[in-house]
Queue: 2 jobs
Job 1
Amino acid sequence: MFKNFQLIVLGLLSFVASAFSQTPVYLDVNKPIENRVEDALSRMTLKEKVAMIHAQSKFSSAGVPRLGIPENWMSDGPHGIRQEVLWDEWNGADWTNDSCTAFPALTCLSATWNPEMSALYGKSIGEEARYRNKNVLLGPGVNIYRTPLNGRNFEYFGEDPYLTSQMVVPYIKGVQSNGVASCVKHYVLNNQEKWRGHINVIVNDRAFHEIYLAPFKAAVQKGGCWAIMGSYNQYKHQHCCHNQYTINQILKHDWDFDGVVISDWGGVHNTEQAIHNGLDMEFGTGTNGMNLGKKNAYNYYYLANPYLKLIKEEKVGTTELNDKVRRVLRLVFRTTMSKNRPLGSFGTKEHAMAGREIAQEGIVLLQNNSLKKTGKILPVDLNKIKNILVVGENAVKRMTIGGGSSSLKAKYEISPLEGIKDLVGNKAKITYAPGYQSPTHAEQDKVGAKAPKQKKISPEILRAEAVTAAKDADVVLYIGGLNKNSFQDSEGSDRTTMDLPYDQNKLISALIEANPRLAVIILSGNAVSMPWVNKVPAILEAWYDGTEAGNAIASILFGEINPSGKLPFTFPVKLQDNGAIALNAYPGDSINEEYKEGIFVGYRWADKENIEPLFAFGHGLSYTTFKYGKPTADKKTMTIDGTITFTVNVKNTGNRKGKEVVQLYISDLKSTLPRPVKELKGFKKIELAPDEEKTVSITINKDALSYYNDIKQEWVAEPGKFIALIGSSSRNIKGKVPFELK
Ligand code: BGC
């Protein structure tokens, strides 16, 4: 009530002030944003207001031309700026100047465990968005990795809410420093693609707050994001694009979010709920705006004519409308009409190199065992190796294309084979054998695009060719994994298995028989099973790395760069080792899905059930070795409003410069409600020269000890005994420090 009164007074004052000055308040970039918002709002007609809150094309919404307020232009997100599509169609507009820098997938960014890389990513992609005149970037996605089957895991930051939160904040700030809003998606509980349009998720309040909401909360409260995208699925039987509980109560009331809530495309289902349950802008699909899909054409959107009609018939008032428009105006004044908005830059060398640096820090060395006779395979030593065989389709397949809305028209994309050839030059002979073949697919967003014709070769012949070639090679670099086809790492469908597709396991097993000097390089955004893990000496998780993919991968393989990525999610041995799968709690019965594993997601499940993972959360090797000293704490007892600092010395004991991620997990020894065995609550990435030693300190406060008490409906830190575990992965704990909270 008081807030409304304040706003009316502000509006009147702005109006009176503008009557006496030459520049209207809303146009005056030096005036506070809230004054500009109220002034603009006071000048708008009802029709102009309604026009502003729904799409006018695939990716834009109306401004107020009469007042010189520009349109809003959105773009996917989250790995690069999507190519221009036609006004009313998903087909590309065939512009010649919209080829972007493709940045590494968010799983790779997360695997850097380096918030500085996140800041660089956000700044760079924000510059690209700005240059292309977008004021909203549809990303990043912070949905938690719940099962290895979710087709969209590659677009997210992994399984841990703390890691995700730490990594998403600098991304948002980087994007928004360009006067471009970061639209964090998909709020909330969109953890699978199967039945995503309607599945009703049932989750207990603890898991909801501790696991699934936490990254969004950080994005809002620490990242200060200006937009949030509602998800397709339902919670408490309301679609999340207009959900009383998640949007009105949690996001806007509890977290004080003052930005816009944008629907996912086609995620709105009901005008009344869209009006009352917190949605601010409706975007959609399924129309060409004219004859096709007339029912869905823009004026027929739930927040278009149907809303106008209800207002005119006085069935609803304008309080909600004004709130929505205020938020959209705030978006405009924060972005397109803000002071000192930089100009941005696009497809630059600098951005390509930023992507390369991120990829090089994100690639994870999973295994690097020594062979009896010849030692380690990685890094490949060009002084000794003269005959290299590269096998696998992912060595040449374009990975920036496909996968759904994150598909990109990249300015260029260096394939792993190209990267390897470039780096090796004439120092060794390189032979390539595909080994297997996957179906090609048409370039996305392209008018009349057809999948390139490919000659189908029998899998047996492809396999035999590769195996024969392997016998003569000094080293075999197998580059396979998943790709962006449907039912793999792709939007709109989930995987049906954790196994590698296209009979790759058969191929890898045959290769290792032919030549033990084999390194397997997996390109994926998801965990894959590895039945051959004990036979293959070297394994690398190389993600999807964008424009500079091949150069980044080659620089790791040949040791120009020392790998330092750490897994942002668990690689289980088999699918059944995942909590949701073990409890038969995925994918639901097509109507409801209960997250029966509760808070025990990822390593929390593996710890609780004492399951040895294939590769643990936080795991990642280096070409050098690190020795951890004994960790200590600055005090034995922490007070509820105080802090405690843990310190450990880490020394590089190998002969190469390298980076290590020191990880802090907290274990609550006794609590009223069950808690995970341990949870990540701090980490630091450091660089060490050979023989160099550094002291790493990580400070925590009560937030790191708190859990969401669903009985009290609040976060609580219970006094008692805790243990700080410091290690180089969730399963490689180097030291423990007990302490107490009083
Ligand atoms: C996706 C969003 C995307 C939007 C626009 C939807 O299908 O879920 O992530 O931003 O399309 O392309």
Job 2
Amino acid sequence: MKEIILIKNGEIALKGLNRSTFEDAMIKNIRRRMAHLGKIEARKAQSTVTIAPQDEFFDMDAASDIVSKVFGVSAFCRACEIEKDMSVICKTAAEYLKNELEGAKTFKVIAKRSDKKFPLTSPEICREVGGYLLSKFHNLKVDVIDPEVTVVIEIRDKNAYIHSAQTDGAGGIPTGTGGRAMLLISGGIDSPVAGYMMAKRGLEITAIHFASPPYTSERALEKVKDLLRQMAQYCGRIKLYTVSFTEVQEQIRDRVREEYSTLVMRRFMMRIANKIAEKDGSLALITGESLGQVASQTLPAICCTDAVSQMPVFRPLIGMDKEEIVAISRKIDTFDISVQPFEDCCTVFTPKHPKTKPNLSDFEKVESVMDIDALVNKAAEETRYEYITAV
Ligand code: ATP
Ligand code: MG
């Protein structure tokens, strides 16, 4: 029996002439992420993509798990590919779905016939397959309203396909088709969710992390990499830039009034990220900020950080509650990593009374005690990168 994965494209199908480009990008992402499982053949036809393993010991469970995390896939299922012959279809349906049918009391058959030359109509296919299954499984009754098992027979150009219920895919647009943006990633709950959300809208994600050794530990940086490994299951391989932020933070601590220090620090992050993003070919920055969540995320505070960015700053979580963000982080399995207790460069130097209503005009004076360009250039020059791949 030849088992394949049948993929239904969601929003991709709406993209008119670009559709083929989007489908190709989705297939490329699938191929890359399945490379370690063995050879596959990918075919496109009628808003569906089929992934057929070419190796005998191909792990279909692992492959399904990978497909469930690829953006652009609206729904998918494992299916059996067979010749378009009614007696083969009936026999294979009974065999392929044996376990599900044995364990159920009710079922129905749905037929989808995109090959209009097939001699039987859809209702005729349903009747014939349904009758055959009833004769083989005496535990079963037909229930067309709310069946426990739905047997789907698809008659397409070259082959017939048999499957049961399909699973929802990750949705969205294939990662990489929308250009590249740089995610400011901390070790917290929010930024990984923000990166996931923008990758879902088709962006390729590169990441930048600000570390302040020895105030922040090697383990804190490892935590960020663990988060990226997890995110890479959805976003694909992620390039991570690690900025040594210690000198900037020490100068802020020594020279800037405490109530301004958080925002001055955030403005430095923006400046350095802009510089590195430009070199990297990223066209926007992404942060995990949510309006009003902390002092540095009030509207006046965000205006002060935005003012030093030349590129657009995407904040997909801006209107979300913490519980909504946590729900997504649990779904993408970053939550348990995020809550591990390792210090972040922000927390190490947190002031007791940060300004919640800062004035943009204050910063010129507050920051005049520092050589901004020199600090930014030095931090950017010393920045290193590496690639993080999925777990
Ligand atoms: P998170 O849960 O993502 O840490 P947060 O609610 O703790 O967010 P802040 O610590 O104020 O909020 O950070 C706001 C945003 O700034 C983060 O979502 C992230 O995008 C960015 N950021 C904070 N710290 C760092 C860091 N050390 N390196 C890179 N980006 C950071
Ligand atoms: Mg944080």
